Amino acid sequence: MKGDFKLKEKATASDLIIPREDPYYYSSKETISVIDKIYRISQRHPVNVLVAGRQGCGKSSLVKQYAAVYDKPLATFQVGILSEPGQLFGEYALEDGETKYKQFLFPQALQTPGCVIHLEEINRPENPKALNMLFSLLSDDRQVWMDELGTLNVADGVVFFATLNEGEDFIGTELLDPALRDRFYILLMDYLPNEVEREVLIKKTGISDEDADQIIESINTLRSNSELSMEVSTRTALMIGEMMAVGASLREAIVTSLQTDNETLESILLSLHIEKGYKEMGKSEYLLLTKEMLLQK
């Protein structure tokens, strides 16, 4: 086999692009401070950041916004599809009667200075052993050897962001190996405070103040109802807002946006009619995470 394969031409840097900045992305003052320090550390050497939190609270959006505000190319990789070591790097394929090694984007991203590499849902590989080749890349060595590609060195300024949903509620997840977790700085995220979530709803969907208040009141009722145990994410709130922005009633928007069974849905609708639940997070200053904001610091 070795005598028959050829190394396929590498992916190019043009495959990596700087994402567009979200003008309405809010984050806590503490998170923005940490993000700024992560950037400063990355100017000295590559750095790893683990972003954990509830589903739909903006973890992936934070990674994208980081790349946008610091003008860095972003490459996102789905860890959930991995079943064996080396699968991120490439694969053998038959082409014109010859077995060639097809290199994927991951090796190119590793070797691109300043690249932001997003390892999405890092605790959901099909096989935990599929992460073995990441250990060296995330350690002080910052390199890995492959027979097909030789030595791959992590370029200057590369930032690895890994995101995860962790816990019994998330089917298919694994507890992250302590030896792997130990290589990361940790950022914990949660839902936005009510006043910030309301502002995001208005600016991103174009709904009225009154509609935004209805949505916030409704999702607070669901989040505070211990019997329903509903995790209503900011992502879901935005979906409800988008439906209402094009003429849907609050009931229609909730029915089409919440992914649940009919029995639970009926309980939810009943709960919204008879309860006025309210749950607010601890007070923390939230700011826009944008280039303009960073330039003012």
Strand order of the largest sheet: 4-7-10-3-11
Number of helices: 11
What is the terminal separation in angstroms?
Answer: 58 Å
| CA-based shape | globular
Fraction of residues in helices? Answer: 25-40%
Write down the Rg.
22 Å
> Strand-residue fraction?
15-25%
Helix-strand pattern, N to C? Answer: EEHEHEEEHEHEEEHEHHHHHEH
Largest sheet: 5 strands, parallel
Low-confidence segments, given as residue ranges, are 1-13, 167-174, 274-282
Structural class: alpha/beta
- Average pLDDT, to the nearest integer? 83
Number of strands: 12
Secondary-structure topology with pairs:
Layout: E1 6-7, E2 26-28, H1 29-42, E3 47-53, H2 59-69, E4 74-78, E5 90-95, E6 98-103, H3 105-110, E7 116-120, H4 134-138, E8 143-146, E9 150-153, E10 159-164, H5 178-181, E11 185-189, H6 194-205, H7 209-224, H8 234-245, H9 250-257, H10 262-274, E12 286-288, H11 291-295
Parallel strand pairs: 1-6, 3-10, 3-11, 4-7, 7-10
Antiparallel strand pairs: 2-12, 5-6, 8-9
Helix pairs in contact: 6-7, 6-8, 7-8, 8-9
